[in-house]
Design goal:
This protein is mainly alpha-helical. The chain has one domain. 63% of the residues lie in helices and 4% in strands. It contains six helices and two strands. A two-stranded antiparallel ribbon has the order 1-2. Helix 4 packs antiparallel against helix 5. The longest helix has 29 residues. The termini are far apart.
């Protein structure tokens, strides 16, 4: 069980990262993209959040390492299921988005407004899935550093989706406003 505990979550994330890198090869050319400073403003917090999840320590190392939840098989497997489901949801969204995808805020040549599949559930399913991947991992860790990582990821994605929302509204006009009116940004029925 100890080996599973140490390797399951890194394994889930590494498989997801590998898929992400491979699938990034076939995308449409970019018509408009965000500035390098804007991109750094949401990538650096994600890097910090990732580091928070992977560093090791115990309560003597500071408040970040204090247990919020007791280690148990229930929290471990619940966290693993949430992480796998979240990363799977984001991968489904990536497949559905197809060649319109980009790691940065962009408008592609011949950009299409995707409103089907996971995009019928939420407007930003990749962010939803990755956020739930962080939530599941944080749950399994059970320390305050996981809570901080989730807050950082949420803030980073919220900033990025606000820029994307503005660009999609400019690109697709009324069509996007109607989509936005009936589909939540990140969490169905809530947000």
């Amino acid at each position: 069980m100890r080996l599973l505990y140490h390797y399951l979550f890194p394994g889930l994330w590494l498989v997801w990262i590998a898929y992400w890198r491979i699938s990034a090869a076939d995308v449409k050319p970019t018509q408009r993209h965000e500035s390098p400073g804007s991109r750094a403003a949401h990538l650096l917090p994600l890097l910090v959040a990732g580091v928070l999840l992977w560093i090791r320590g115990d309560a003597e190392d500071g408040w970040l390492f204090r247990q919020l939840l007791a280690h148990s098989l229930t929290t471990f497997w619940t966290g693993a299921a949430i992480t796998a489901a979240g990363l799977g949801f984001s991968a489904w969204a990536r497949v559905h988005l197809g060649r319109n995808w980009s790691a940065t805020v962009t408008v592609k040549q011949d950009h299409e407004l995707i409103r089907t599949g996971p995009y019928a559930i939420v407007r930003h399913p990749i962010y939803t899935g990755v956020l739930f991947g962080f939530i599941g991992t944080a749950l399994a860790i059970g320390q305050w550093r996981g809570v901080l990582a989730v807050v950082i990821v949420f803030a980073s994605f919220w900033r990025k989706l606000k820029i994307e929302e503005r660009w999609m509204s400019e690109t697709f006009g009324e069509q996007y406003r109607q989509y936005r009116a009936r589909t939540r940004a990140l969490i169905p029925f809530l947000l």
